[in-house]
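Consider the following input, taken from an annotated entry for GCN5-related N-acetyltransferase (Pyrobaculum neutrophilum).
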Amino acid sequence: MEFVADREAALRLVELYYGGPPKYAKAVLERWPSAGAVVVYIGSEAAGAEVFYAVRLAEAACVHYYVVVAPKFRRRGVATSLVRYVEGRCGTPINLATSTAENAAAAKLFRKLGYSAYFWGEMPTGIREVLLKATCGYDDDVLYVKGGRPADVALPTAEVEALWRETCLKPYLGK
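Applying the prediction step yields:
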């Protein structure tokens, strides 16, 4: 496997395998200075991609924003390799991801990698609001955390507000 930093190729893969226009992935890559994208190649074929970013909470956190794998490469360790690679590249003590509750593959992936799953409704309002903004998550998602618990990680910062406004709210409003 070869990992290549390539925003355009990663956006194409997100659009192709995520099932829709990658407006939020594109917004984070264009508007957030600590965002990145990596494509993993097996031979000459793009097997998968990840879009990620760092944000300051109680400590620096890496958000695994989009992880996609081409169907022919699934169940071959591509997503595991991508997430591990990005964890190392970010070098943060905290790692976060969200996914729909129905996404069994994401649940299996993140749990295998040592992430704990949390449901938003189980969190106090203040903690939930900070982490929803930090991950650009949805109320019906599951939050995956590695390196801490939500109560220890969540800290309302100006950086979280700026991230949310620029990469979540403005694209939602079409700006």
